[in-house]
Specification:
The chain is mainly alpha-helical. It has 3 domains: 51 residues, Ubiquitin-like (UB roll); 71 residues, Receptor-associated Protein (Up-down Bundle); 254 residues, Receptor-associated Protein, CATH 1.20.81. It is built from 17 helices and 3 strands. A hairpin with a 5-residue loop joins strand 1 and strand 2. Helix 12 packs antiparallel against helix 13, helix 14 packs antiparallel against helix 15 and helix 16 runs antiparallel to helix 17. The N and C termini lie far apart (100 Å).
Length: 405
């Protein structure tokens, strides 16, 4: 009898893993369900060992949100038209242009054709299909509403993609301005100023002002130590990445981010929007509350808020509501906890969460637009001022040299 390895969540909300004997995958899932285990991942141990390393290589690659959203919506459309799942997956694998996604869907089709569930097959590619995706697909399979769930997933990924694109486009111009400024300053210090220094040295009677000496010394430092400067920046970056990759360092950095004026407020709004939209999507898809809280903690991308969600989840497992623990944490704005509280009392929690998410998405977009409209002219002024001061520090001595001659 085959042996199946599984990861799941017990009735008490604890993460568990183990093995179960069953005739096939469906029997194994049924057996675990009777034992009160919500299966997150399950696979035939022997088949997985025979797959080899080829599958691991392909499963390690990720795809763009736009490609995944489009493929999800196409799959939902095919299923809604009563096209069998295997044929739908085959059509998607032939239609998508992204090569990684094409290979993934082709392999998923084969696994489903061999008797595996769609959720279990998707779980083989964690870089492509996140926990929320797999959990909602599993809930859709169990409830018989897979086509509806996939449409909601497509809408969810599209909304997240639009918000990310909005933020990226808003920040693109300031980043380009900063890169251009640093490039121009580096070029002037390393190539232009040293040539002018030779000219100044040819006129020993010329008296240089302090601001000109500052530019000359800065240029000399850059010319003589540019390798050390680059090495220093690289070392700082490596240290920062190593520090933030640790649990304590990540929590400290996220705390700092949330306390930065303006930036911290936007970061909190983005995290809250992700939390509410993801939780609404999961609950609407039929995922249990405790499981949804386990998944949504990883979506906020902030250790401080994730810790608050963990504490709320523990309190919920003991019989409390959602709004109370979130309010006690002090990390969620009052309007969020109040609307969640109203949603729980009226039995319309999913809709309330979605409204909060849409409101915060709009506020984030508005605030980012406002910040960039202010930041862009400020950067132009700073860029012009710095370069102007350098040019001024160089031109004044040249004018004096002309008067001396």
């Amino acid at each position: 009898m085959p042996i199946f390895e599984y990861k799941g969540i017990s009735n008490l909300g604890k993460n568990i893993r183990g093995t179960v004997d069953a005739e096939n995958l469906k029997s194994a899932r049924t057996k675990l369900k009777k034992e009160g285990v919500y299966v997150v991942e399950i696979h035939d141990k022997q088949k997985v060992e025979k797959k080899g390393s080829k599958k691991k290589l392909s499963s390690g690659r990720s795809v763009g949100v736009e490609d995944l959203s489009m493929a999800t919506r196409q799959l939902a459309t095919l299923l809604k038209a009563n096209v069998p799942l295997v044929e739908s997956l085959n059509a998607i694998s032939e239609q998508v242009e992204n090569q990684t996604l094409k290979e993934a869907f082709a392999d998923i089709k084969n696994m489903v054709n061999e008797g595996s569930s769609l959720a279990k097959s998707l779980a083989k590619y964690p870089r492509i299909f996140k926990n929320i995706y797999v959990s909602m697909v599993e809930a859709g399979e169990m409830s018989g509403t897979l086509d509806v769930i996939l449409i909601r997933l497509a809408e969810f990924t599209e909304s997240q993609s639009q918000l990310q694109a909005k933020i990226r486009s808003a920040l693109m111009y300031p980043i380009i301005m900063m890169i251009v400024t640093m490039g121009m300053l580096t070029f002037m210090f390393i190539f232009v100023v040293p040539k002018l220094i030779e000219v100044f040295e040819a006129a020993p009677e010329l008296k240089l002002e302090w601001y000109t000496l500052v530019v000359i010394n800065a240029s000399g430092f850059m010319v003589n130590n540019w390798m050390w400067v680059l090495a220093g920046f690289f070392a700082i970056w490596i240290f920062f990445k190593s520090w933030t990759s640790t649990p304590s360092g990540s929590a400290q950095w996220d705390t700092i981010i949330l306390k930065i004026p303006v930036v911290g407020k936007v970061a909190r709004q983005i995290a809250v929007s992700r939390f509410t939209r993801t939780l609404a999507t999961l609950l609407t898809g039929g995922v249990p509350m405790l499981t949804a809280m386990d998944i949504v903690r990883n979506v906020v991308n902030n250790a401080v808020l994730a810790r608050a969600i963990d504490q709320a989840r523990d309190n919920i497992s003991e019989g409390e509501n959602i709004a109370g623990p979130l309010k006690k944490s002090g990390e969620f704005p009052p309007i969020v906890t109040n609307m969640i509280n109203i949603g729980e009392k009226t039995g319309d929690l999913e809709n309330m969460l979605l409204q909060v998410s849409e409101a915060y998405d709009f506020e984030v977009k508005t605030r980012v637009d406002g910040l960039t409209s202010i930041l862009n002219p400020i950067l132009i002024v700073i860029m012009g001022s710095v370069i102007g001061m350098i040019v001024f520090a160089i031109l004044i001595p040249m004018f004096e040299m002309a008067n001396i001659s």
